[in-house]
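Researcher: Structure for this, please.
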Amino acid sequence: MEPLLNPRKSHVKIGSAIFMLGLVLILTETSTAYGARDFNKVGHTPCGAKCGRKHSAVLTDFGGVGDGKTSNTKAFKAAIDHLSQFASDGGAELIVPPGKWLTGSFNLTSHFTLFLHKDAVILGSQDESEWPLVALLPSYGKGRDAPNARFSSLIYGTNLTDVVITGNNGTIDGQGAPWWTKFRAGQLNATRPYMIEILHSDQIQIFNLTLINSPSWFVHPIYSSNIIVKGLTIVAPVTSPNTDGIDPDSCTNMLIEDCFIVSGDDCVAVKSGWGQYGIKLGKPTKQLVIRRLTCISPDSATIALGSEMSGGIQDVRIEDITALSTQSGIRIKTGRGRGGYVKDIFARRMTLKTMKYAFWMTGNYGSHPDPGFDPKALPVIDRINYRDVVAENVTYSARLDGIAGDTFKGICISNATITLTETPKKLQWNCTNVEGVTSNVTPKACDLLPEKQGKFDCPFPKARLPIESVPLKACSFN
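Model: Predicted structure, token format:
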């Protein structure tokens, strides 16, 4: 496994000894899932969880072997195929007991719970034959790593209703290092698998798990609604390519909360399709809540809006965010040919420590799925609201780059205090093609964001979104 933090990079230094101790404790707890424990001596029975389903089974009932060497792909598929018959009869749960369960990709079913015991580790197979190819995503048109094919995710599902993936902090390890090596060497003929991908589905809950070393993105709900992602510890080396933590993609009514993410890419990346394909499909991400998130990502954003935002992003509420040694806080990523929109974004109570940029908007993000994009498809960026921000040890207060002829409008920043590194950049606010207002911001913002007179706070919605009232389908374990 590559080192989590690279001490040779000065921008990766964590200024707090208390935080480092906490990080070590978290990673130590995660690593015990691999360590000296002899799973052959741990009894698999009695072993049961109660998750509100009428029917239940244990992976070992279907020939599962938790030795970390035997493939369990057939066992997972057999178990879920069997349990799928109970979807209309109270649903079913599959319990993954203590052990190391090596597997390739497997598909979920509706009215179903996948439950991991605290000493269970699902290991992603390194045999590519155990990762079937799946269709390209219509809002992307091409694969990200290779244009014409993509691998199924480790845990995959489409057209599902009422699915829970949970545990008492069991672990899913994607064993991504070989995939990262192939990606860097240009040896992939298909786009790397994600860890969890759920498509065209409704009522999805993913919570109380540790996820490590995904081959690419960790959690990717797409074209789905009514989703809760809560209480996840997500860890990948900060040098690992494209290991986004959570990627809401063309989703509606979604809640992300109480997650700790260390990543080689954006901790949360809000998406809605790429270029002309996302514009054509036209499925926005909207009604999204992100709160109580802690992030470390030295070369990427705490929360990114884009760059694949061509179907639109609207009504995102972000609050109580902590970022440490991360490149930027909230970053809007777009460019000519993206089309779509990012609007009605609300963020408050952000604590940022050791950052390159406190505020960052990029209007020249140039990657496109293919040459057929329309350069006249300009994105609309409007009503972007940030308030109550404390940022320490910052290199640049802001870099806000709109697009010539396509000004980013309605930017509001209030009550933001930024303290700088010992050697800060002279130009703290670099602004082009943007307009808006600021209030009580230090250092003083650029002239394109003038100070609003009198006491003023940027808006944050008072009404709750429907997903905030949905209870978790929690499990008890015997």
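Researcher: Any notable elements?
Model: The chain has a mean pLDDT of 91. The chain has four helices and 28 strands.
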